[in-house]
């Protein structure tokens, strides 16, 4: 009965533009539903968007806990750098496989609502295991925690995107994705700048620094994961309510994975994969090791080192939507990719071979990192047909996680045996490979008609012609 009354209220309410939602024959008597409670109203969807954005906040906050506490983890647990970087490798290993099956699990097994809650639980449990390992000074338990955390982390991002597609359509969607990315970067930034302070407060409470203070700090960080789990529960309730009132279907991840499609991937797509792997392995492992680098080379205090190490995320938060809009308006994706990779190479070379203020290089790295993400990932949709998009993006994420796991281990070993200069040269070599692949992509695309490097106007014209032909 409540369901019928709720639906009658909705039908009697107003649409997004302020007009009645139906004609005279459609309206049922009864008091209109308040806008904030109406799933069809913009105000209600803005509330839902808030919960969507915070859904991944805890995951991104806790992902870089090791980087924010690099000095403390190394000292309190008596680890070498190779062992420290294993904490990042163990996060990536499960996602070499789960990138293919996360969408399938959401669509066919759990459903988006239950799946989101389950993956949020994995993130919470993984962080608790990780913190408990530090409390007990059991490194193997910390590795297990990062593995469990990784199972939930990437799949939760798939669920977040599925909710966004289900609630927001058309032009709204790009803005929503940009806001979600900004919130993710905000989580990473807050982590980088607050965890050192949290550790010092916990150390004061327990009486001295050590693995007990480290474990307590990581357990406090886990509160953000509980907050995200709460957002998952509220989102599930709101989505179920909207499904009942609006009589709409539950959201689908839309990622149809057919591994047999891999053999049909064109050569430009393999170049995009190569750029993705070679580029990102020089970003995330570097940030994971950056705090001690800035302390040792530039004589920064731990607080200053954490601040400069987080500038990539700080810049990425507001820059990603702006640069995404710029790429959408101009096109020329391959040129933007080459520009971003070249700027990243310049930033790494400044860090490796000069003693210039590292804020310059890290700011350049933040802008170029955001620009590459906006220009590279959409190109996959220009290369493969729509029915292969799920497989292409799943494969791209899979090899990216494989590369991150392997390079994280290699970076730790290089740093232990050769030092930061050789490590920076290694990262520069990875970026050089990405740059060569980018230039090769430009010429291969040029020979094939230049579809990837078209201007936005030319691309829109072709799309309009194709639509007219189809009609």
UniProtKB/TrEMBL annotation:
Domain Major facilitator superfamily (MFS) profile: 42-448
GO MF entry, a single one: transmembrane transporter activity
Gene Ontology cellular-component annotations: lysosomal membrane
Segments of this protein annotated with the region Disordered: 1-28
Reactions performed catalytically: L-arginyl-L-alpha-amino acid(out) = L-arginyl-L-alpha-amino acid(in); L-histidyl-L-alpha-amino acid(out) = L-histidyl-L-alpha-amino acid(in); L-lysyl-L-alanine(out) = L-lysyl-L-alanine(in); L-alanyl-L-lysine(out) = L-alanyl-L-lysine(in)
Assigned keywords, A-Z: Lysosome, Membrane, Transmembrane, Transmembrane helix, Transport
Annotated TM spans: 42-61, 88-106, 118-141, 211-238, 269-295, 307-327, 334-353, 359-383, 395-415, 421-444
Keyword Translocase: no
Pfam families: MFS_1
Compartment(s) where it occurs, according to its Swiss-Prot or TrEMBL record: Lysosome membrane
Keyword Transmembrane: yes
Membrane-related topology note: Multi-pass membrane protein
Family membership noted in the UniProt record: Belongs to the major facilitator superfamily.
Subunit structure: Homodimer. Interacts with lysosomal protein GLMP (via lumenal domain); the interaction starts while both proteins are still in the endoplasmic reticulum and is required for stabilization of MFSD1 in lysosomes but has no direct effect on its targeting to lysosomes or transporter activity.
Role summary: Lysosomal dipeptide uniporter that selectively exports lysine, arginine or histidine-containing dipeptides with a net positive charge from the lysosome lumen into the cytosol. Could play a role in a specific type of protein O-glycosylation indirectly regulating macrophages migration and tissue invasion. Also essential for liver homeostasis.
Protein's name in the database: Lysosomal dipeptide transporter MFSD1
Organism: Pleuronectes platessa
